[in-house]
Amino acid sequence: MNVSVSPPSSSAPAGAGLVFMAKPGLRLGPVAATGRGVLDGAFALLDALANADEGLGLTALARATGLAKTSTHRLAEQLVTLGAVQCFEHRYYVGPRMLRIGQRWQPDPLLRLCAQAPVHTLAVQSHATASLRILHEHRLRYICAAAPHGRAYMPVPADRESIARTATGRVLYATQSASDATLPDCWTRREWRNLRESIRDPRATVLDHQDAVAGVCCVSAPVWWPTGACAGAVTVTVQANDLPACLPAMVSHTARSIVAALQQPASK
Among 59, 118, 186, 232, which residue's CB has the most CB atoms within a 10 Å radius? Predict the structure, then answer.
């Protein structure tokens, strides 16, 4: 597990040429007499589908939601009509309308506001993809990202072990307050403990030399709230066999810039 502490670096002028990676519904009918309102049933159904990548048949969906089968079918079909659910080969999946709504979710608007400019500058300086991400329900979520034209490839690992092999995942798991027992076991407890101790250095970065994806290297650093909790991980991703020597200092500088911006509202 590679951790680097970079010397201070000065910011370079920002450039251009970046791309940021930012029917009237039917009335839902009542759910069967289960003591639950229609919204409870609808969200229970959507929650069940959100945790089923391969979709659910009607029987499995009714079992997962605790609703009667007839009520599940009626509610699911109404949600299909609304575009919130889709059905293929008698299996239900989350629909495109939920994607459109979900894309508007901002995990923390203040964090995004403070991070956009520094992340954009980092992408300009590094000529690589830069991002700020958080760990939400064991999945990496973007706060903001920027990339030069033609360099928008962003690997998105889907499971805990794969996430924990990335520089971003190591930072985000290591800065959690959870016990060792909840950490992915792709690294030993000693490695996690050493990382937790070293990453508190304001200039510390975590390096990924193709540990997660062949041909992709990353540098990541934590961004801290004024309370001392981790707000997210700022990362540069490059498609190369090795990392340019200047990247750790640039990523560390960006993380500290975001931290400084987060502290300003608290001081007013």
Answer: 232
